[in-house]
Amino acid sequence: MGAKTMGKTPMRRALAALLATVAVAGCATAGDPRDPWEGYNRAMYSFNEGVDKAVFKPLAIGYDEVAPLPVKAAVGNFFGNIEDLWTGLNNLLQGKGGDGAADIGRVLINTTVGILGVFDVATEMGMEKRDEDFGQTLAVWGVSDGPYFVVPFFGPRTLRDAVALPADLYGNSWVQPADIAARNTTTGLKMVHARASLLGADRAATQGSLDKYAYIRDFYLQQRRYEIYDGQPPRERFDDARAPAMERPAIYATQADGVAEGAMRLELAGLTEPRH
């Protein structure tokens, strides 16, 4: 009897510790109404951070140090050209026919004159580069954000954007080599290039707040709102006992296109494509 009791004690302690952890995580969910799954999200954020530090960041640093600047520019232009077609399709689905036609025009010019997109001739001609995805299309169609949600390996999303993620992954990779080895190499290069382009944002995310998780979450949600409203989000009112009539200004374009965007996508950002 004594031996059995002693054997069960460590298990009971482990179970008690697990329940305590869950309880603490549950208490954390009350902090931000946009993040009701904060306990899970923080755990997944830590997992993604660990994988990034062990795998993607070292590869990105090596690529950044070895690849010449013209090569990195050509790689970014090539993948950006593929994404322009998906952007154009989403603009058409959102009812923005002019923007969609312009996006498709960019693809035609860069694919031909720009030699398969290696050179961004369209931008040099003054054609604006846009960034649209299926998550934004669902938002235009009236689908609400849903809770904040950290996707394994892919980082911060809203629930709506997580549902749209498979379509975005397919739409941004519609050109794939038939050979499996070449396809895997191309996918790996895209991931490493995207992560390398965000190396400069690491320090901003680390120094931006004592709570890096909350910093990335808040910037992501603000940036996402900025994108959905095409850079002109309405001003939000917020309830605060200290200032009930004040308004909180939306994120500014300088934040959206600068360090903030890199910081909010820091978690394994190599799996998502930043702006080029």
Descriptive account of the structure:
- This protein has 276 residues and is mainly α.
- The protein has one domain.
- It has 12 helices and 4 strands, in the order ααααααββααααββαα.
- The strands form 2 sheets. The chain has a two-stranded antiparallel ribbon with strand order 1-2. The protein has a two-stranded antiparallel sheet with strand order 3-4.
- α3 runs antiparallel to α4, α3 crosses α8 and α6 crosses α7.
- The longest helix is centred in the first third of the chain and has 29 residues.
- The termini are far apart.
- 34% of the residues are buried.
- The N terminus and C terminus are likely disordered.
Strand order of the largest sheet: 1-2
For the terminal residues, how far apart are their CA atoms? 68 Å
Radius of gyration: 22 Å
Query: H/E series, N to C?
Result: HHHHHHEEHHHHEEHH
Work out the helix count: 12
Quaternary structure classification = single chain
Quote the beta fraction. Answer: under 5%
| Mean pLDDT value | 80
Provide a concise account of the structure shown.
This protein has helices at 2-28, 38-66, 69-93, 97-112, 121-124, 134-140, 159-171, 180-196, 202-207, 212-228, 253-257, 259-264; strands at 148-151, 155-158, 236-237, 247-248. By secondary structure, it is mainly alpha-helical. The strands form two sheets. It has a two-stranded antiparallel sheet. It has a two-stranded antiparallel ribbon with strand order 3-4.
